[in-house]
Amino acid sequence: FKPPTGIAIKIEAGPVRGGGFLSLEPEIGQYAGALQLSVKEINLSAIGVINTMLPDGRQGYSFLIIIAAEFPSIPLSFGFALNGVGGLIGIHRRMETQALSDKVSQGTLASILFPKDPVGRMQAVIADLSTIFPIQEGRFVFGPMVKLTWGPSALLTLELAVILDLPSPLRLAILGRMRLVLPTEKEALADIRLDVAGI
Predict the structure, then answer these.
(1) Cα–Cα distance for residue pair 127/120, rounded to 1 Å
(2) How confident is the model over 27-68, as pLDDT tens digits?
(3) How far is Cα of residue 189 from the mean position of the Cα atoms in its chain?
């Protein structure tokens, strides 16, 4: 008997819709999962990975998860509105700053900042996260994320995160994605996108 290597679930229960996927790889000690739910106008998503084996083959553990919630606009000042909040937590993980810098131009921030379709893209997102936040005993990463919009019809969308890697040497990364659509997203004549990472 060969046990399953993955479990999927789909939910359609009135106002609650979505699904999830769990990947099981006991031979390398890795268990990854993704969840995406919509409750009326609120979208919740999570993606995470647990390792029970260290890179050198020793028994150990590490944990990394991203959780995000997107919801109808909450007005702020100067035309800005809050559209989402989230966070990243990594235990026995570090931030690989060179890999982060190298991958910004490849759109890798889409795997960190409010990942789109985390269930369908789970393997790609986990691969990006494992490269940027590799396993290392005794180190921890965490940080909040926000999603903001500005202007009529949300002309400008900003996704921002501040990631802290500690203890010493302390590292701080400010990550951002910007999208400017004119005049509207459905009738876009201009669609400008910019990814930024400052370390």
Answers:
(1) 13
(2) 889 999 999 999 989 999 999 999 999 888 888 899 999 999
(3) 29
Closest CA to 137 of 76, 196, 93: 93
Structure pTM? 0.86
The span from the CA of 151 to the CA of 188, in Å, is 15
Smallest Cα–Cα separation from 11: which of 60, 44, 48? Answer: 44
Do residues 96 and 133 touch, judged by C-beta distance below 8 A? yes
Instruction: Quote the CA–CA distance of 133 and 87 in Å, as a whole number.
Output: 14
User: In this structure, what is the dihedral angle of CA atoms 151, 153, 156, 160, given to the nearest 10 degrees?
Assistant: 100
Per-residue pLDDT tens over the stretch 65-101: 999 999 999 999 888 999 999 999 999 999 998 888 8
Q: Side chain identity at 50, as an amino acid letter?
A: I
